[in-house]
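>> received
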Amino acid sequence: MNFSSAGYISSPRDGAVKFFAFAVLVLASVFAFVGVANAATFYVSLDGSDSCDGTASVASTTPTAPVGCAFATISYAVTTAITGDTINVAAGIYTEQLNVNKNNLTIIGADGQSSIIQAPSGEFSSVRRLINLSGNGITFDGFQIVGNGKSDIVNYDGSYLGVRIEGYGITVRNNTIRDLLTGIQTTSLNPITPNSILNNTISGVAVGISLQNDGNTVTGNNITANDTGFGIASFNTTFADNVINMTGENGAEAKISGGADPYKGSIQDGINAVNSGDTV
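>> returned
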């Protein structure tokens, strides 16, 4: 094609523009690499302080110059962290609700799931989220997550939802989750999200895992529930090697339930989505 005849005339300025665009791309790549390379690790400990800088796992011993010691709460560590950081949580009971709204954070509990996140006490209406993962690319690994013991699917006011997954590409693995209304729930805020729910033990709940969007991977989970093991309102989820144990009066038909919305699939679709590797 003759660009001159089409009204396009090449000029030295065009070359400068192309070079500038290339330079911007290069600089963006460099800054992205630097961001990953400079990812920090923060520490949380019961004998720490949120006045510390969180850069070491030791206790706070110098309140007037809190350098090189741990934070006291996971929430404050999340507030301080930026994309790509890691938060290591020491053993102990942390009574707090979490909203993790940063991307690509890794939050790790101590060995043996000895880092326990306990629901705050007190009466309230409706259902509260104990842990809300609203950022993208989060890994939440190796905790005990304990509710307030309310797991009645009918009279649910004043109960907690354990882990709510709102973001994209989130991994929830190796946790023990108990004494809640629902153990883990994905949402329809992102219709297709490749989240991974792996090797969790969930008990003392009405619903083990509730899937409300498509494209998840759910493997190696052990669920004991009094109403529904899996609540499936989605397509294209990979199931493998999950174990469901039912308690209460609802019986076998309540172990797996499909979505009521025809677009998301019937009850039979939900049952067919579970592979033969699962135990029901």
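>> Residues 12-37 form the longest helix (26 residues).
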